[in-house]
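User: For a teaching handout, I'd like to show students what a predicted protein-ligand complex looks like in token form. I'll give you the sequence and the SMILES for NAP. Please answer with just the structure.
Assistant: Understood, here is the input followed by the structure.
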Amino acid sequence: MRLVLAGFGVVGQSFAQLVKEKTPDLAAKYGFVPRVVAIIDSSGAVMDEKGLDVARVVTKKRKTGKVGQTSGLGAREIIARTEADVLIETTPTDFKSGEPGLGHIKSAFISKKHVVTCNKGPLGIAFQALQELARHNSVQFRYSGAVGGGTPILDFGKTCSTGDDVTRVTGILNGTCNFILTKMERERVSFADALAEAQREGYAERDPTLDINGYDSAVKLVIMANHLGLSKATVREVNVRGIQDVSAEKAWAAAEKGEAIRLIAVADKSGLSVQPSTIARDDPLCVTGTYNAVKFHCKDSGDKVIVGRGAGGPETASSLLRDLIEIRGSMSEATEQ
Ligand SMILES: NC(=O)c1ccc[n+]([C@@H]2O[C@H](COP(=O)([O-])OP(=O)(O)OC[C@H]3O[C@@H](n4cnc5c(N)ncnc54)[C@H](OP(=O)(O)O)[C@@H]3O)[C@@H](O)[C@H]2O)c1
């Protein structure tokens, strides 16, 4: 199975290393040997149709900051022209344009390649259009790492909706915000001090705006709602309020009443919203620290909650691999029929 990797940062490199490490296992258990034939970063690309030595590319990237030479071709052209089966798309998320991932994914679909991505931008902006383009080109589109990192939130939601109706989804979808709110209530520190601690610990980006203002949660909510058929909304239609105005006093007051303030994302037939809300501390959704949690409200079987870490390079890479294995499984089924 020939792979093109677009994006070779934290997640892309973790994925390349995971695939290398697991190759004997993948051959034995699933009957396929992944071969990385192209790797693209922001400054160029490296290609070999026989398969790249990914360990060497990682070493080169770490030493020089680049995977290869500038090829003269743009990433979209490389994706379209390379003989490969699957694009693994891990470039940075852009919530406004969805680029560069959106163009990469379209280019892969049009050239009949399956796509696995954890890039939320293209999904938040064009979920339905991308699904349609994948269907039109008879290729598969998987994105389980886009929500919850390595925690299989989307797959769990799909299982909950099989033979039942998921009528509402309620989630804590941003580990940075949850860390800050937990820190404020437990240690009675201000928002600014809790944010500074999150940055020192490496949980928050240097520019944490999209976490704090709720947009990261909103885009994940959009992906979940579309995935489960609850809504066809894009990120522009979510009613969003972040945690920037949650005062330390409010967080402490909630804690004293056995409650907690969390950034809660809700999707149901009436719409999508993200806002700081008070929930009971003994609600299974009320996770602490950097954890994510999602509650699926099911019409017949009741509420179900999934909890796990929502980010991390190796964790997210494991989701990409899971998606790749699923694609391989359905490719084999298709050839058997
Ligand atoms: N990190 C996590 O825990 C996590 C979890 C879930 C989802 N995600 C999502 O996964 C994606 C990757 O995250 P990351 O942490 O790996 O980011 P990252 O470390 O910043 O890596 C991004 C990679 O994309 C490359 N890139 C940027 N623009 C490009 C372009 N126009 N064409 C080709 N390559 C380009 C960068 O190239 P250079 O190396 O040359 O800069 C870099 O290699 C993001 O969309 C993120 O939201 C991440």
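For the handout, you might add this sentence: Residues 6-12, 40-43, 75, 90-93, 100, 118-120, 145, 149, 311-313, 316 surround NAP (CB under 6 Å).
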